[in-house]
Structures are given as structure tokens and as C-alpha cells.
Amino acid sequence: MTIPLKDSSDPSAKAALARLEQIKGQLNLKSSAMSLQAPKDMTTERAAADFDIKKLEWLWAGGEDAYNLLNFSYNFIKNDPELVVQPPRNFLEMSRPEAREFAMGQIYRTTQLSKDKALNLTKQQIDSIVWATNIYSETFSMRFFVHASLFRNAVNMLGNKNQQDKWNTKIENLEVIGCFAMTELGHSSALRDIETTATYDIATDEFVLESPTVTSSKWWIGMAGQTATHTVAIAQTIIHGKNVGLNWFIVQLRSQTDGSLMPNVVAGDIGQKVGHLGLDNGWIQFHRNRIPRKNMLSRWVSLDRHGNFSPPPNPAVMYATLIPERLSLVLVTTQLISQAIVIATRYGVVRRQGAKNEQIMDYQSHYVKLVPAISFMYMVKTAQKDLDEQFSILTAGGNMDPATYLNYMGEMHAMAACFKGLTGWYSSEILEDCRRACGGHAYSSYNAIGSIIGDWGVMTTGGGDNVVLLQQAARHLLFRLEQKLKFNQYPKFSFKSPTQYINYAEEYLGNTKWNVSDVSQCLGNFSVVEGALCTILVKRLNSIQKNLESGMTHNDVLLESVRVAEMHCAVFLFSTNAAAYHKSTADPALDKGVLSIMNRLTVLWGLHILYKYSDQGFKEGFLSPEQIKDIEYIYFDYCKSLRSQVIGLTDGFGYPDFIIKAPIAKYDGDIYQAYFDSILQAPGSVDIPPYHEKYIKPLTNQLK
Amino acid sequence: MTIPLKDSSDPSAKAALARLEQIKGQLNLKSSAMSLQAPKDMTTERAAADFDIKKLEWLWAGGEDAYNLLNFSYNFIKNDPELVVQPPRNFLEMSRPEAREFAMGQIYRTTQLSKDKALNLTKQQIDSIVWATNIYSETFSMRFFVHASLFRNAVNMLGNKNQQDKWNTKIENLEVIGCFAMTELGHSSALRDIETTATYDIATDEFVLESPTVTSSKWWIGMAGQTATHTVAIAQTIIHGKNVGLNWFIVQLRSQTDGSLMPNVVAGDIGQKVGHLGLDNGWIQFHRNRIPRKNMLSRWVSLDRHGNFSPPPNPAVMYATLIPERLSLVLVTTQLISQAIVIATRYGVVRRQGAKNEQIMDYQSHYVKLVPAISFMYMVKTAQKDLDEQFSILTAGGNMDPATYLNYMGEMHAMAACFKGLTGWYSSEILEDCRRACGGHAYSSYNAIGSIIGDWGVMTTGGGDNVVLLQQAARHLLFRLEQKLKFNQYPKFSFKSPTQYINYAEEYLGNTKWNVSDVSQCLGNFSVVEGALCTILVKRLNSIQKNLESGMTHNDVLLESVRVAEMHCAVFLFSTNAAAYHKSTADPALDKGVLSIMNRLTVLWGLHILYKYSDQGFKEGFLSPEQIKDIEYIYFDYCKSLRSQVIGLTDGFGYPDFIIKAPIAKYDGDIYQAYFDSILQAPGSVDIPPYHEKYIKPLTNQLK
After folding, report:
1. Which of B176, B213, B260 sits opposite A31 (nearest CB)?
2. Are B174 and A694 an interchain contact pair (Cβ–Cβ within 8 Å)?
3. Which positions bind FAD (chains A, B) (predicted)?
4. Which residues, in sequence order, are CB contacts of B275 under 8 Å at separation 6+?
5. What CATH number is associated with residue B619?
6. Structural domain ending residue among the three candidates A299, A317, A335
7. Least CA distance to A101: which residue of chain B?
8. Are residues A344 and A229 in the same domain?
9. What distance lies between CA A584 and its chain's CA centroid?
10. Are A343 and A448 in contact (CB under 8 A)?
């Protein structure tokens, strides 16, 4: 295989550039009124921002220093041919083998940065370069994440001190490349049914790993296809002939020297996928594969030489790694979906179409989709920070008393589950809206939205099926409500828990009708909105609870439960941002312009939820038809009021053009020639096809 | 380029098969309880059909003879290596160059069938083989459609008798390969703004075609990338220095001998797209390109030697080809989306997961998505037939009086527009639901859903942006309502017009509340449902009309209008099927079991619309919270009652496994080994990757 992805100084790239110029010489690339207007529109839109865009970029990046560091990294990777595909080659044109090689090359390159003394990079800078490369390539991000996060977290959250000491250095310098083998061909959401076994052989003090059937094959395992030398694998643990439950084991898959499979391991590549072409997902089978006893991860369990096994204090701790995994997937929302929003937004302001040659962004069908999507990105960003802090309380919780720990754990698990569920689904909707907002041009791979959609596809089922996650969250909410209403119990938390409103359930249940005659009160008052939303939530939960008590099954109320869990998470985003961006409670150091726009985005988000879940309020008889019409009117109108801010707000994400990749979303708005260029760079774009002689000429030339 | 897609008797295919067997020898492919249960479940599900599946297949195919003919064709193409990719190669693994060559090879092969006397095929059989190949490959379908439908329809609907005579034979035998050049880089929905010009040069009796700017480049043109020798192109027509409007011109693009571009034409390939890899979409520029006057399509216009131009009787006739184009896109729904539904449904009944090892189809989140999707396919199939008949009245309408013709045209245009809009969007939703219903396994390209989604992507913006189309339909509805309410005018049609309910607008407006206390009345009575739906439609249209009269702009009510137009189309589907499958009005020859299941699907569709658009009813104060809750309950419950029929219903589409392609959707339910096989067949699936030496070994072997 030839890898046509080198820097532009190599001869084949030079030849490609020369060919491109020659084709362009034959074309009429003269500007039109339309193409001249586009950059002017972009400039006008940018100038319309009611805030200092730079300061919003700081907020998004996590502060001025973080912003500067990230921009240093963007500049660093931009011209590095091993981290970023250099023109005239196109990242969006890679085949599977090319993408896999390039992604591994990126990983390799990041490991070499510290060794190149001439570069003189700090550890912080190198981490930031990795982060910038994550943002550039979701495939790199996922591949790096499998090793540096999934594998490493398993060792550190589930392994004991000795195991951590043994493996952490090897993980750090990639002497081992690790993956995370949980899912099997026949088993994903139902971990209980995992078929792989690890049987303790007391004679040799080893575990024997076995894949007993076709459906027990580990499946989808990232990096297992071509790369990983080691894995953590979950398996049914058999000791003295008895199944003591699921445990995690470190297993070597491939030789660290020549990459060949270890004896008694068979593994391979999963082949073509809808996205993540550069990630080598794979499958694994173990056949009487022997590993030492000490390879069983033993922070929470233990097994001595005589086969005495102590189970974990709570089985849930064995899956605790899933919480940071889900929070990471939420983080991907802000780094990936935001890019699609930039593309649709920028194209939307420079594209003009219609009777009065309108900017397409001026159509209601456009801004009522994109403005809430932009708001969602900022809402998620704030909430994600909050949850990270809460999670750090949990991980520091080794010394908590067990009851408190499990209460925290329950809250975190439910919140991570519904956060991943809501962001997964709403992001899919946003991507579809972005795709449609770009019209036909989203169908070109070179405008990047297709690749984002492909990469995103895995998110609504991977890392926990969203229906299952949201149902788990709903059950947690129903449990909290039942505890409150029946036993007047609600735990004390040291932070603002996402379920806190349930502590006031009786009060909310007492609200028969929404006592707001002028819905525009929602514009100035977060507590009016929050009151309505929490009332609807509690009433809905209570109705579901009653249905269950009257004999309906959990399955009968599944769709209702899932919808309420979604809404719960949407309200959590609102509450978190309302606290962060209310004038009276916001960080006093926050720039006034930024505070003001974040406040407006929060108002919009509140209206968005009221609108989107108004059926929930109507079903409960809480909202009247008039109120529902008013909510719609005010929501649409508030979207319109933020229409002028869309460029400033999406500039706030701070992405350079090479990260976004799409020519129709160029920062300067000068899109048409750039788009044509990307098309002309496609291999063979103006050649007679190789099949002409065989299939075309015999037809078109038949009578001559 | 090597094309690795030959029949299984060639040596490289044999080697691949041998390699595959060797790998399988190392694997444990023993059955598990799960893999053994799957085919048993499939058999049980199939036996549960309340009707004769074969007879439903006849209905879907258009009768027993049509069914037999299509099955003959499926059997014919199945083993033809030029029409269907043969194992171990995989249709879903092709690169862009491979896919483009294969699709043109398919076209070539279909032209040779009549020449091969040994095959002894009738014209009808050959047409059916083309049709079966369409169903096998959406790329082939689209590529064939561009020439045989878009190009040919333009010549026949817009060209005069001489032009038809001149071109039809060449089109028939593919001596010319035609395409359809409408869209430009800068212009799609707004045809008025097309920039390409055709200037009449009276001195030479020629038109001079010109692409004056970058944005005037014809863009996305199917088959223009590599294949087409000719195109019809729309251009601003300049005669004696005056723009006389848009006209269509036949222009040669490439030499029929060697495929090289004609002088004064530059064209090329649009490169990588989200789907339709085998379709060579392209761009075209004309540079002082001279064509004879007689190449202007002149059925409705004329231009004499002196430059005297007669415009069309109505500008709309110049776009009449868009109506059959849109109806064709609706047809694609039934042939493509139905395949995704088969995949999700079959996988849903054989996959078991959960506390009680449930079939995942038994989850409410599953069947409430898939049962309505299945119903939708059958509803569309019936309505599409109806509209085809109506369209044939229109095309036969050369002798109609102009007022009648334009009334028909208005109805057809509005109906085709909103039908394409509704099916486009609802199908996208269905695909997303199908994808999610397959969990992670939809992420494997080999399970086909990804490819269907990729191909489908173009449908919500191509062939008319859905927002624009639905808005056009809404304006037509508002116009009819205004005519009725203000002037008591409604046209007489010789068929049941989709807008007929507007003729009873006053009556519907008089219904203040839905006078149905027991919503289960909807189960037995189509007219109860139709009455409610039409009331809601008329009330919503009337409210929008009032908002417009009170000063709101069309843009202010855009999203509302679009939603009402969607609902209008959904109700049209209901009415059409209610007439076809009501015991008192159905074709008496219809099999009783088939009639019964079609009746139940129609009941379900009515409930689906009531549920989905219930917000429209409560906004109008027509539906109460109690009624809304009852509708939801009865709708979910009716979905559940059809849950047992899903295999019979999807078998009704009659697709053989090689058409469906997805191993997780095998007819016999024995999915796991087949799925593993498809993975193992991926090139290099168990090889050490070529980049091991370069990127992996230096890391993993660093300390040795």
C-alpha cells in the first residue's frame, strides 16, 4: 500500500498541485455577485456580535491561558504532516488502510514529541497537542482514548497498588498498547450474560481464559484489530467449579516484538464501519489461554493461592469505569457536534436563496433549529464541568462511609447515564438538522458533515444503549420519588444534586395549573421556568409511578420513562447554567458581555425545553392550549432575537479552518472557489474513467 | 486499478476462500444457546402470521404474475457476476473507483441481455431484470434513472415530435448516455437565479452556451462525472439581447468514440460523497459552446430562424418533469427503506437481551418504532399507485382545457411535493430507528444499514429541499381553503383529490371539541379517525391563514405550515388506504387474510397520525388531555397487537437474502456465524498491519 499523505514538498504532491493548476487554467472561476457577497455577509455577521468574541473563546476553552495553549497547539499541528493531512491531500478522502495507518502514525508522532529536544516542548504543551489532535480527528481521539483512558482507567480504578505500579509506566510510554474487551458478539447491554470464562487452575496458580462459543467472541474492541498488545477483558470467574461473578483480567494479545498473535489468542479486524475508519476495532477469542493469577484486577476483590475469593463490597464498583467513559462521550459532543454546527451556521449566513435573495439563515426553519443547537453546546459545556467536579468527589471517595459512597454513586451513575442518553440523541438530531441546513453540499464528503455523522453514529448505541441508559436513569428518579413521597426520605448531598427538585415533590404536585398568564415572564425569570419544568417532571414521574402501581409493567411505560429521563437531564442543564449565568449568582470575574450572552442562551434553553416537552405538560393538564401556543410563539421569537449572534457564538468555539475542514464553512466566508478546489483535488477528477473502453465505448460508438 | 469483483471461479477468489477456511479452522465457532435459539425464534415468528405471507408478497409485488416475474429476475441476477457481487467479495466493501466501474458494468450488462440469444429473454423479462438490479443496488438504480428517466423524460415531456424522434432511439440503445443539468454550484431551489446563459446567435443560427462565473458551474449532475455523452441543460435564454426566460437545451459533453470532453466543455467528477459511491456525480462548465437552434427543447416554446420566440403557455410546464422525478423518489422509499426495516425487524426477533432474556422486539421502544414504520411502507405503496394513475391523467392531458389542466397540475404538484417531503423525512427517522434497533451491529458496514443511510441522505435535500416542497404544498392548501371559505369555490376533479376535505371546511371548523368519549372507537371506524384528522387539518390551516391576515409573514409561520403539509400528506395516505382496505369498498377479489392485515395496518396508521400530530389537535383546543392520553395508550396497545405480525409483514416485501445483504437479517435467523464470516472476508482481517514496523514496534519493543 502506498500512503499518499505526505507533506506538500514531496514530488507526488507537487505533481498533484501542478495538475490542479493546469485544470484550473481551463475553468472560468470568475466571481459572481453571489460569491462576492458571501465574505461581505460573513464580515457583517461577525461584527453583529453583542459581545467580545475573543472573551467567549476564552470561556469555551476554559480561560485565557487554556485558550492560548490550545492555539499554540493548533498552530503546531497545522503544518505537521504526521499529525494533520497536508494539502492537496484531503483527510476526508482516506481509504480504510490509509486512515488506520495515519491514525497510528499520529499516536506514534505524539510519543516522539518529548524526545525531540529541538522542539523544547513542556509536558503541558505535549498534552495540549494531543488534545488539539483529538479535536482534529475523532478517529485519533477514540483510538488514543481506548488506550490512555479505557485501559488505563480499568487498571487504576479496578487494579490494586501493585498492579497500578506494574502497568502504569508501560501504559505511559506505550510499551504496552492496551484495549478494553467487554462487549461480545452476542452480549452488550446485558453484562450478566457474558460468556467468556476465566477458570482458576489451583495446580498452576493460573487463570485459563476461554471463549466457549461463537457468540462469546469479544467484539467491536477498539485497537484489538491491528494494534493492541494487551487488553483488559471481563469474564465469568470460575473458582473451585463455582461461578463467583464477573472479573477483569489483563491479557497479552500480541507479541511486543513482531506484532504476531500470542499462542491461544485469535484476534482480527472488524473491517469496514460506518465511521472511525482509522480505528481498528476488532474481535478476540481465547482458547485455553493461561495467565497468572496476579493478572486479575484486584482493587475490590482478592483471590489467594488457595482459591479463597473475596467478592467486591458492591458489584457496581466493577463497572465504575463506565461513568468516566460516559462523561467522556458527553465531552465528545462538545468537540464534534460543535464542528457540524459551525459548518451549518457559517454556510447558513453566506448562502442566499429565495424570492428576495435572503440569507438562508433568515428562514425560520433554519434559525429555530440552529440557535437551540448552539445553546445546547454551551449548556453541555457548563454542566459537563460541574459533573467532572462531582465525579472527582466520587473518585476521592475511597474513604467515604459506604452508604454515602453508594448514594453518590447512584446519583452519578444515573446522571452520567441520562446525560449520555440525552446528548447522544439530541446530537443526532442536531447533526441531521445541520446536514439538511447545508442542502446538497452536505452530501459531498469534503464538507465534513458526512464524516462527523459517520463517526457519531456509534454514540447512540455504544457506551451503553441510550434506551437502556435512560431507563436506568428513570428508575433512579422513580426510586427517589417513592422514597420521598412514601418515607419522606431524600439523601443529603454536599453538592447540588440533579434530583434535588424531588425533595420538593409534594409542593410541585400541588400545582394544578400553571399560574402564569403572561408566558413572556419566562424571559426575565429563571425560577418561573424552573418551577414549571420541575412541576411537569414530578407530575410525570408520579403518573408513571401510579401506572406501575396499577399493574402496568416497566415495559408498558418504557417510552414514557425514557422521555421523562431525557427531560430531567435537559432541566439539569438548565438549572446548572441558570446558576452559573444569573447576574446574582454568576462568577463576579466573568466578562459582562459574555455573562449577558450566556444568560440569553440559558433563557433560550429554558424555552426550548418548555416547547419541546410541552406535550408532557399538556398531558398532565398543567399547561393550557393558550399557554402552549404562547410558549411556541415566544420560543420562536427568542430564537429570532438570537439569530444575529450565531456567527459570534460559533466563532466562540475557536476552531481554525483546518480543524473544520469544510470549504463551505470557511472563516472568511469566501467559500465557492475553495469548495471547487477541494473537488478538483479528488484523484482522477477530470480523467477518462479506466472502464471507458470496456463499458462505455461499446455502447456509444456502436453504430460507427 | 484492479477490480476484485469477479465470480468465485477465478483464482484470486479461490485463494481468498481458502484463506478464509484456514482462519476459521483456528476459531471456536461452536453454537451457543443464543445462536441456536435464533433460527428457532425466526421460525416461530414466521408461523405466527395471521395471513398467507405468499399472498401478501403478491400484493406488494403487484399481483401473482408480477411476483413470479420478479422472482425469476432475482434468481437470474443472483449468480450473474456482472449484476451482483459474488462471494467472498462484498458489495459493501467497494471503494469509489470499484463501485463506479461495477455500476457502469451493470448498465452495460443489461444492454447485452437482449443480444445473448442463448438466454432467450423477453423484453418484459429484461425490464424486470433491470428492476431487480435497481432493488439490489440503489447506485445502479440512480445511475440508470438519470439516463432512462430524467434525460428521457425531459426530451419527451419538453421536446417536440422531431426531437423525440431524433433522440429516443439513441437513448434506448445508449448510443447517447444522457444526464440532467439543472442545479448549479450557487443555485438549487431558486431556479430563477440560474446563471448559465444560452444566447441566440442569429448569424449562425446557433445558441452559445456560457458558464459566466464560478457559481454558475452545473453541480451534482449525475453521470456527468465520467460517463454522460450528452446532457439536457437549463439556461437563461437570451434572444436579441433580451432574456426570454429559462429553456432546456441538449448539449454534447463527451466524444462518443473516446470519451474525451468536447471542445468548449469542461466537466469532471465531484469526488467522494456520503453515499452512492457508484454514481459519478459531476460538474460542468460551458465556454462559448455552440449548439444548433434545434437543440432547444421545443414542445412548449418555439424559436424561428429570425429569432421570433413564443414562450410556454404557462412557465410551470417547463418544470413538469419534476413531478415524475418526485414520485420516483417516493418509489425509492418503498424499495430502499423497506430493506432497512427488514434488517431491523429480523434482527429484533432473533436477538435476545435483558433480565428475562427477552427478544428485543418485545420492548416497547422497539415495536412502537418498527410497527408504524412497516405500516408506513404499505401505506405509501398503495398511495403511490393511486398517484401514478392520477399522473397518467395529467400526462394524457394534452387535450384538456387549460383551466382543468392547470387545476390538475396544481393538485399533482402540491401532492408530489408534500409526498416527497413526508416520505423523505419520515424515512430518515425510520432509518435512524432501524440503525438504533440493531445496536452496535448497525455500525458494521456489512450489515448494510450504513450504506442505505448513506444513499438515502441525498433524498431530504435533493429533488427539491423538503422544507421548500412542504411550504409549497402548504401554500396550495391555504389557497384552496381561502377559495372555499371566501368564494365557496372548490374545483371539480374526476378523481378523489387529496384536498377534497377542504370542500367541507365550514363543517370541520364547526367542530369545537372532539365528540368521542371512548377513543377505542377509532379501532373499528375509519370515518371517526378521518373526521378528527380533517378537522385538525382545517383548523390548523385556518389558524395559519388568520395569522397571515393579522400581519405575520409566511416566514413567521414557516415551521407550522410545513408541519401541517406533512400531516396533510399523512392523512392522504390514510384516506387512500382506508378506501382500499375497508371491507365495504375493497376489491372483492382481494384475499381475505391480506385484506384483514391491510385493514389493521390502516387502523394503525390512523392512530399513528393522531398520536404524532396530537399537539396540532390540542393547540386548537380540539383534543383534551384525557383524549391525548387515551390516544397514546390505544396507539401503543395497537402496536403491541401487531407485534406478532412483524416477520410476516416484512417477509411480504419478498426480498431474498442477497438483496438484503446483512448477515444479521438472514431469512432463516441463523445470523452469528454468517456475520462472523462477513467480517473474516474483509481484506487483511487477520494480518499484521503494514505499519507495524514503522509505528508500533518502535514503541512496544523500545526497552528490549
Report:
1. B213
2. no
3. 183, 222
4. A443, B138, B451, B453, B454, B455, B456, B457, B458
5. 1.20.140.10
6. A317
7. B691
8. no
9. 32
10. yes
- Pair (A228, A307) in one structural domain: yes
What digits encode the pLDDT tens for the residues A352-407?
998 889 999 999 999 999 999 999 999 999 999 888 887 777 766 556 777 777 78
Residue A367 sits in the same domain as residue A297? no
Q: Are residues B280 and B357 in the same domain?
A: no
Label residue B341 exposed, middle or buried (CB < 10 Å: 0-12, 13-18, 19+). buried
Cα distance from B212 to chain A (closest Cα, Å)?
7
**Considering the domain boundaries, does residue A457 fall inside one?**
yes
Contact A258/B704, CB-based, under 8 Å? no
Whose cell is 479552518? That residue is A657
Secondary structure (3-state) at A344: helix
Note whether B228 and B344 are same-domain residues.
Answer: no
**Cβ atoms < 10 Å from Cβ of B475:** 15
Contact B615 A615 (CB under 8 A): yes
Q: Are residues B307 and B385 part of one domain? A: no
Could B185 and A270 be called an inter-chain contact, meaning their C-beta atoms sit closer than 8 Å? no
Count Cβ atoms below 10 Å from residue B424 Cβ, excluding itself.
27
Residue A147, pLDDT > 60, answer yes
The binding site of A for FAD comprises 183, 222
CB count in 10 Å sphere of residue B36: 13
Tell me what the mean pLDDT of segment B2-18 comes to.
Answer: 61
- Please tell me whether residues B516 and B533 are part of one structural domain: yes
Q: Which residue ranges of A make up the annotated binding site?
A: 183, 222
Considering CB atoms only, which of A32, A214, A355 is closest to B35?
A214
Number of domains in chain A: 2
User: Taking the CB of residue B401, how many other CB atoms lie within 10 A of it?
Assistant: 9
For residue B198, the domain's CATH number is 2.40.110.10
Residue B321, phi then psi, degrees to nearest 5: -65, -20
Q: Is residue B245, in this structure, part of any structural domain at all? A: yes
Say yes or no for a CB contact (<8 Å) between A268 and B357. no
Residue A447: alpha-carbon gap to chain centroid: 20
Domain region containing B237: 176-319
- Smallest CA–CA distance from B259 into chain A, residue: A688
* Whole-prediction pTM: 0.97
> Would you give the distance in Å from CA A521 to the centre of its chain?
35
The distance of B322 to chain A (nearest Cα, Å) reads 17
Residues A271 and B663 sit within 8 Å (Cβ to Cβ): no
Parallel/antiparallel/unpaired status of strands B282-286 and B218-221: antiparallel
The cell for A460 is 447512540
Query: Which DSSP symbol is given to B352?
Result: B
Domain boundary among A317, A336, A364: A317
Closest residue in B to A446 (Cα) is B272
Q: Which among A73, A667, A96 is positioned nearest to A342, based on CA atoms?
A: A667
**For the residues of A590-608, what is the DSSP string, one character each?**
S-HHHHHHHHHHHHHHHHH
Segment B470-507, tens digit of pLDDT: 999 999 999 999 999 999 999 988 778 899 999 999 99
Could you give the CA distance from residue A636 to residue A253 in angstroms, rounded to a whole number?
56
Are residues B279 and B328 located together in one domain of the fold?
no
Q: How far is B311 from chain A (nearest CA, A)?
A: 22
Closest by Cα among A231, A239, A398 to A304: A239
Q: How far apart are the CA of A438 and the nearest CA of chain B, in angstroms?
A: 9
Q: By percentage, how much of chain B surpasses pLDDT 90?
A: 84
Is B125 a member of any domain?
Answer: no
Phi and psi torsions of A429, nearest 5°: -60, -45
Instruction: Give, to the nearest 10 degrees, the angle between helix B364-395 and helix B625-642.
Output: 90
Grid cell 525531540 is found at A116
Which residue in A has a C-alpha nearest to residue B543's C-alpha? A629
Domain-embedded: residue B147: no
Decide: residue B316, CB within 10 A, 0-12 exposed, 13-18 middle, 19+ buried: middle
Mapped onto helix, strand or coil, the DSSP state of residue B183 is coil
Distance CA B427, CA B609 (A): 15
What torsion do the CA atoms of A396, A400, A403, A406 make, to the nearest 10 degrees? 10
